[in-house]
Amino acid sequence: QVQLVESGGGLVQAGGSLRLSCAASGRTFTGYNVGWFRQAPGKEREFVIAISYNGHNTDYADSVEGRFTISRDNVKDTVYLQMNSLKPEDTAVYHCAAEVPPFQAWGSRLPGAWPYWGQGTQVTVSS
Fold first, then answer.
1. Checking DSSP bridges between strand 18-24 and strand 33-39, what pairing results, if any?
2. CA distance 70 to 93
3. DSSP string for the chain
4. φ, ψ for residue 76, nearest 5 deg
5. pLDDT on residue 119
6. What is the mean pLDDT of residues 104-114?
7. What pLDDT does 30 receive?
8. Among 9, 84, 96, 107, which residue's CB has the most CB atoms within a 10 Å radius?
9. Please, how many CA atoms are within 13 Å of residue 85, restricted to the half-sphere of its CB?
10. 84 and 68 in contact (C-beta within 8 Å)?
11. pLDDT tens track for 10-47
12. Separation between Cα atoms, residue 24 and residue 15, nearest integer Å
């Protein structure tokens, strides 16, 4: 069982930045594909960004490209979501998701394709 823990959410003004972290509780993150999704009140969970197990490939939603970046530190067993130029419409609960080999979710932006999830961290962007 893979348990994911997100941190770093908070309240920020529009135009500001936040960095979210996702760690695998009790085990190494090495070898996992990791994605971030978000869910705003009354809306469906949507794909944001993902990074491959080796960090060589990334996938971005159009709405965040150029503003959000994803990286991973396999020594610290942590994946980071750097969010810059935040907008009020970025307000949501942000969840990290992961998959282990055999990889089936990579390239899928559907939440159901990713087997492991964290509880989420709230990001609120004020105008």
1. unpaired
2. 17
3. ---EEEE--EEEETT--EEEEEEETTS--TT-EEEEEEE-TTS--EEEEEE-TTSS-EEE-TTTTTTEEEEEETTTTEEEEEE-S--GGG-EEEEEEEE-SSP-STT---GGG--EEB--EEEEEE-
4. -90, 0
5. 96
6. 88
7. 80
8. 96
9. 7
10. yes
11. 999 999 999 999 998 777 778 899 999 999 999 999 99
12. 30
Rounded Cα distance between 115 and 22, Å, is 15
CB 90 within 8 A of CB 81: no
Please provide the size of the chain in residues: 127
Residue with tokens 């920020």: 12
Tokens of residue 28, six digits: 């190494």
Task: For the chain, state the CA radius of gyration.
Answer: 13
Output the six-digit token pair for 37: 């999704």
Residue with tokens 């089936």: 104
Q: Are 22 and 81 in contact (CB under 8 A)?
A: yes
Per-residue tokens: 75: 């020594």
Rounded Cα distance between 77 and 29, Å, is: 5
Dig out the tokens for 72 from the structure. Answer: 């991973």
